[in-house]
Every structure is written in structure tokens, then in C-alpha cells.
Amino acid sequence: MKILNSDLDNVLYDFVGALALVEGYDCKETWMAEKVNTSGLNYYGYVKRMFDGAIDKGLFTIGKPLPDAVQLLDHLTDLKKEHGFMLNLLGACPHNHPKSDKIIKDKTEWLEKYNLVKYFDQIIFTNGSKSKVNHGHPYSLLIDDYEVTEKRFAEINAPFILHTTTENTIVELKKYFGKV
Questions:
Q1: Please, what is the Cα angle at 7 between 6 and 11, to 5 degrees?
Q2: Deepest in the core among 78, 84, 139, 172, taking most CB within 10 A?
């Protein structure tokens, strides 16, 4: 492997927590119970409905890193030193979204605010999650939380780790690098 790509939202950035904050909730579990679960929509449908307004309310600036984001980045940095690959952030903006420039600006400023830029060789934002497959190759690995992207990477036979927790991702990385 020559490139390790990490997604941002729900891997490093507490996207769900930020959605809750935008709607005035400090607790994302309460937000899910009171807003999403009572909306008649699934999570993705609800997010799609509120997304544009949430961008204007600071969706990509008010959130915090996930509690173990730095632990994951430190682990990836150690692997990078050991194996000599590039470590990239591979984020996405919704496909052809009219506010893509603002989303990229906000996400980049957020990475700078939390001093996370230093971990990455490149910061790449694709035009929709579908475009991430353009970065999928036998010599690259993507860590991402989106199951649809996992299926797309499987279709092109590109290495992928579905991020559910940092602990699980580290276990999967150890398997990938033959250390388990």
C-alpha cells in the first residue's frame, strides 16, 4: 500500500454531534430520539432535509473532534512512519452542491482550528461520496464510515475499512498490516 486515506465526517469529526448542536441539542442521543426518530424519515433522509440550513448555521464549524480522533490519527501516523505511505484526508461534499465551496472552507478551517492538518500529506475533498472511488486502487486503503462507499470499493476491489469505532478500526488496521 502506498496511500492511506481517511474520511473526516464520523471518523474524525463528530458530524452527528454537530447536527444536534445546530438544532439546539447538546446531547446527540436526545437529538436522535426527539428529532430524527420522530420525523418519519430515516437518519439520511432527515439529514438531507435539514442539510442546507445546517450549513448556514455552522454545521462544519461548531462540531468537535470525536473523543478518540487524535488516538486514531496518532496510530495512523505511527503506521505511516513504519510503512512509508502517504496519509491523506479524503472527505466529500454533497454531489454538485451549490455550497460546496463554503463546506470545503469550513471543513478546512475546522481542521486548522483543531491542529489536525499536520497529520495529513494531502487534504482532498471529492464531489460527492461516489467520487471517492476515483481514489480507490489496490495500492490505497480508505477508512470511512459510510457503508455505501464500502460497497463501491468492494466493486472495484479496493481496500477499505468500515469505521465504526476507533478501537475496531485499529484492530482492522492491525489485521491489514499483518499484526494480528
A1: 100
A2: 172
Dump pLDDT digits (tens) for 143-159: 999 999 999 999 999 99
**What distances in angstroms separate CA 14 from CA 3, 64, 137, one per listed residue?**
24, 6, 28
Handedness of CA 132, 135, 136, 142 (dihedral sign): negative
Contact (Cβ atoms closer than 8 angstroms) between residue 176 and residue 141:
yes
Q: Which residues pair with 124 in a beta bridge?
A: 90
Q: The C-alpha cell of 134 is what?
A: 476515483
pLDDT level of residue 178 (50, 70, 90 thresholds): confident
> Could you give the dihedral angle defined by the CA atoms of residues 167, 168, 172 and 175, in that order, rounded to the nearest 10 degrees?
70
What span, in angstroms and rounded, lies between the C-alpha atoms of 177 and 53? 42
Percentage above 70 pLDDT, the chain: 98
Q: Which runs of E-coded beta strand occur in 2-110? A: 3-6, 86-93
pTM: 0.94
Measure the CA angle with vertex 156, ends 154 and 157; round to 5°. 60
What is the full DSSP assignment across 66-90? Answer: -TTHHHHHHHHHHHHHHH--EEEEE
Look at residue 179 and tell me whether its pLDDT is greater than 90.
no
